[in-house]
Design brief:
heterodimer, A: alpha+beta, Aldehyde Ferredoxin Oxidoreductase,  A, domain 1, Aldehyde Ferredoxin Oxidoreductase Protein, subunit A, domain 3, 3 domains, 6-stranded mixed β-sheet, 13% strand, globular, B: alpha+beta, Ubiquitin-like (UB roll), 5-stranded mixed β-sheet, two-stranded antiparallel ribbon
């Protein structure tokens, strides 16, 4: 089996033991790698009811066959575990080059179990696996420990690590790699913290082989050509020119830019914090991940004012929204500062911004007092927002309440605050109001890790009109089909593993062509690729079923079901979830409880 | 009516936003007025070489594809937003 390195590294932190296990080919063909491989390992090996922050939880770092190859945008890695934020399956991915380096070191995945007695980090250099004391790095800011670990290992090592938030087991803590890249969602930084695992530094010297090298070159070139021709992904196209924050204005103009904790979908300050504004102000240069021609990353620098000195790779669309529209802040430099702090402390920007916006609304409504919160956290107060980020990371004062996300916070606060916690299954919503994009709303409700936009990014069709077109208000059967298609396709892409942005230009046929020429699987085609995605989505469902999830959890915050959108194109609309959910389950072959039915499990080879 | 331009379109128009004194016209008529104002470059960005609409046009936040297309009526109180493709524009099939 080419393309893969053929080895899973098993780490036992209790005994500080590393073992190499052969990757089974049938397992690889059924689940590819990344998200799929991680879900299969979790399903097979994790006992239901396990506390996510106990030593028994399993943490999988996985890449796919395409990672680290010459196929476009192939530097990503995926982390899979049981989420301390949701209690269900967690998968979270990150860009950069760490994934490609793991492949060069000779591994398809690292599976971590147990808990170290004292903080340590792993140093993996090809076949050598070392357990190093992390005492010097514990409690440091991310940029300091990145440099520190490299100075102890190798200047060219790629470092993945947690910051202070993960060390203090914040359930919204991220896992950061290469200082600026985050596997942010679902709080897996806390799982590393609970295991006393500070970091994994990797350096490798090998290259994966292709079964059909000429075929792979042809397939990769075809994908590159499609990227270079697409309005979004081409050089000087939307993503390249303005970064992902190119979305700010179009989402706002469409009336679904969540504003002040989703009270409305139109933000008067959107233009000031848009990708267009960034390009004219704090943007210094464009940055790219491994083998990526899109260069959607932004290197920003604030040169004057109270946030001067803020510099780094920064401000994706979701992040600029989480501290912008969500918190009512229209100061781009403050958003850059907020992003910088989340990177340095190792916090998920979406959940952090959402937790702050949630608190702002509770203050506005008198459910919380300024005295209780400790600072004047009203909408639009960027200074207070910045202060609260540090408090969350350090679990200081009211920050300790928010450090576990909005669902847990609302339970502590009570007084009806649950209504204002904008989360599904415990995961905070990202930057789209589902009342004006009903396919995405269905995806938010049904995505296995909670309110996740990248589980089924129907915005591509509903708002951006590509590669398919769909009316954002339509809630009929075709919209349900669209949502399912996006979810399955994405599950396969996340297991491949390439960047999801590739899908703006490249379809399932191209993925299948790249995989078949790389690995050498006979008859591997687009149908099998999509079927693999369906299988992965289903096994995640089975994992969640075992943890007690069902129809009751496939829902949306009550605000979207009860409160009509007050203005903009979706004015007067609520989300029609109830009418869509039955159709969704039926079309997926799931029971009325939302679990995969026997026939479907048979079809997907999941009956065992 | 208010016309808003976004992303790379601004390189041609140099304007973010303008007001046109037009009442009850079709979208295609408004585009002709804009082409007159901004020239051939504007037309080349709005339509592809086959004459198909290339940009996304929203009337008060609603894509004209789900209204009456280029024949959609626009009134003086409307806001028209023009975006180049910020995603897609490809012919990839899922």
């Amino acid at each position: 089996m080419k393309g893969y390195m053929g080895t899973v590294l098993r780490i036992d932190l209790d005994r500080q033991n590393a073992e190499k296990q052969k990757l089974d080919e049938q397992l690889a063909r059924n689940f590819l790698g990344g998200r799929g491989l991680g879900a299969k390992i979790l399903y097979d090996e994790l006992k239901s009811g396990t506390d996510p922050l106990s030593p028994e939880n399993i943490l999988v770092f996985a890449i796919g066959p395409l990672t680290g190859t010459r196929t476009p945008s192939s530097g990503r890695h995926v982390v899979v575990s049981k989420s301390p934020l949701t209690g269900g399956i967690a998968f979270t991915s990150s860009g950069g080059t760490w994934g490609a380096e793991l492949k060069r070191a000779g591994y398809d995945a690292i599976v971590v179990k147990g808990k170290a007695k004292k903080p340590l980090y792993l140093w993996i250099e090809d076949d050598e696996v070392g357990f190093r004391d992390a005492k010097e790095h514990w409690g440091k800011m991310i940029s300091q420990s990145d440099e520190g670990i490299k100075s102890e290992t190798d200047d060219e090592a790629k470092v993945l690590q947690i910051g202070i938030a993960g060390e203090r087991m914040s359930r919204i803590a991220a896992i950061i790699n290469e200082k600026y890249r985050a596997a942010g969602r679902c709080g897996l930084g806390a799982v590393m913290g609970a295991k006393n695992l500070k970091a994994i530094a990797v350096k490798g010297s090998r290259n994966p082989e292709a079964a059909d090298s000429i075929g792979l070159t042809r397939a990769a070139s075809r994908a590159m050509k499609m990227i270079s021709e697409s309005g979004v992904t081409k050089e000087d196209g939307g993503l390249n020119s303005f970064g992902t924050a190119v979305l700010t204005n179009i989402i706002n103009a469409s009336g679904i830019y969540p504003t002040r904790n989703f009270q409305t979908g139109t933000f008067s300050g959107a233009e000031k914090i848009s990708g267009e504004a960034m390009a004219k102000t704090i943007l210094k240069e464009k940055t790219a991940c491994y083998e990526c021609p899109m260069e959607c990353g932004r290197w920003v620098k604030v040169e004057k004012g109270k946030y001067a000195g803020t510099e780094g790779e920064s401000l994706e669309y979701e992040t600029s929204w989480a501290f912008g529209g969500e918190c009512g802040v229209n100061n781009l430099e403050a958003l850059a500062r907020a992003n910088f702090l989340c990177n340095e402390y190792g916090l998920d920007t979406i959940s952090t911004g959402s937790s702050i916006g949630f608190t702002m609304e509770l203050l506005e409504r008198g459910i919380l007092s300024k005295e209780k919160v400790g600072i004047d956290l009203r909408f639009g107060n960027d200074d207070a927002m910045i202060q609260m980020i540090e408090k969350i990371a350090k679990r200081e004062g009211f920050g300790d309440v928010l450090a576990d996300g909005t669902k847990a916070a609302s339970k502590k606060i009570g007084k009806g605050s649950e209504y204002y916690a904008m989360q599904v299954k415990g995961l905070e919503l990202p930057a789209y109001d589902p009342r004006g994009a009903v396919g995405l709303g269905l995806n938010f409700a049904t995505a296995n890790r909670g309110a996740c936009h990248v589980s089924g990014y129907t915005i591509a069709a509903e708002i951006l009109g590509a590669p398919l077109k769909a009316d954002p208000f339509d809630s009929g059967e075709s919209k349900v089909d669209l949502t399912i298609l996006f979810q399955n396709f994405t599950a396969a892409v996340d297991s491949g593993v390439n960047c999801l942005f590739l899908t703006f230009a490249v379809g399932a046929s191209e993925y299948a062509e790249m995989i078949s020429s790389l690995v050498g699987w006979e008859g591997y085609d687009a149908d099998e690729f999509l079927r693999t995605g369906e299988r992965i989505f289903a096994i995640e469902r089975l994992f969640n079923k075992r943890e007690g999830f069902g129809r009751k959890d496939d829902t949306l915050p009550q605000r979207f079901l009860k409160e009509p959108m007050p203005e903009g194109a979706p004015k007067g609309r609520v989300h029609p979830l109830a009418e869509m959910l039955d159709i969704y389950y039926r079309k997926r072959g799931y029971t009325e409880e939302g679990h995969p039915g026997k026939e479907k499990l048979n079809e997907l080879g999941l009956m065992d | 009516m208010i016309i808003k331009f976004f992303a790379n379109l601004r390189e041609i128009t140099k304007d973010h936003e303008i007001t046109l004194k037009l009442e009850n016209v079709k979208v295609k008529d408004a585009l002709l007025v804009l082409e007159k104002k901004y020239g051939r470059d504007f037309r080349d960005v709005v339509f592809d070489p086959e004459g198909e609409l290339y940009v996304r046009i929203l009337i008060n936040g609603r894509n004209i594809e789900y209204l009456e297309g280029l024949d959609t009526q626009v009134t003086g109180d409307d806001t028209v937003s023009l975006f180049p493709p910020v995603a897609g524009g490809s012919h990839a099939e899922l």
